[in-house]
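ARCHIVE CARD
Drawer: 12
Card no.: 0347
Subject: one protein chain, sequence and derived structure
Cross-reference: see card 0346
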Amino acid sequence: MISTAEALETALAPAAEASKATPKATAAKAARNVAPKKAKSGKKASPAKKAPKSAKKATGARDGSKAATILDLICLEVLSQS
């Protein structure tokens, strides 16, 4: 003979397993009523390309500088050799 407690356990066991097997999906939270986000600004205009700089003219050394005296000596040697 089966006691009433055992009968209740066997009757409730399959129902409990079935409910655990298929859990319900949780609902998403409702969105807040707030102002929309500020839009990001587009790409800024790039600056205009600058024209290439021309090469500086070589004017030689300044008068009285060390380089000027050396250049003068070299020129004198070249002129004296020819």
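Annotation on reverse: The chain has a mean pLDDT of 77. The first helix runs from residue 4 to 21.
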